[in-house]
Amino acid sequence: MTVNEYTGAMPSTSMLIPVAMLPAGRVKGCCQPVAAPLPADRAEEIAALHRALADPMRVQLVHILAQATEPVCVCDFTAAFELSQPTISHHLAKLRDAGLVASTRRGIWAFYQLRPDMTEAAREAVFSLEARAPSHRDRTRQGRRVPRPSAQR
Fold first, then answer.
1. Domain count of the chain?
2. For a disulfide at 101, which of 30, 80, 95, 152, Cβ 3.0-4.6 Å?
């Protein structure tokens, strides 16, 4: 019989060695040792953060909060994105559930800020978003606003 340019007798299943009978030094995998898996709770924490940040609108909200010097009113988000208040509140609730933002009420409005006590994984996720984004301070020179390069004519 010929299979993939191999000519000869194929071993029958009775000729195969069961895994349990292999020498004790045998290690699963064949190429290189790999790191041990993360603890399940750590993997779930990181996955929850990434699920929360998997939506472009939530990334935008986190970006604005990271740049803000004080808590941001939900009404300012609705004006910035021309979305309804319930839609913005839904996205902020997802970020709050993931431990990224905290809110306070002032009258009828809720104000949001990044949680100062967020986990190290959350902090890394948030600030990895900001690593490439120019800050408001970077776009301002001597009190005069400097437009982003994409906005220059």
1. 1
2. 95
Give the N- to C-terminal CA distance of the chain in Å, as an integer: 71
The alpha carbon of 14 is separated from its chain's Cα centroid by a whole number of angstroms, namely: 49
Q: Tell me which residue range forms the domain holding 52.
A: 40-132
Total Cβ atoms within 10 A of residue 126: 22
Q: Is residue 15 part of a domain?
A: no
Distance CA 140, CA 69 (A): 15
33-47 pLDDT per residue, tens: 888 999 999 899 889
Q: What pTM was computed for the model?
A: 0.64
How far apart are the C-alpha atoms of 49 and 52, rounded to whole Å?
Answer: 5
Do the domain assignments include residue 18?
no
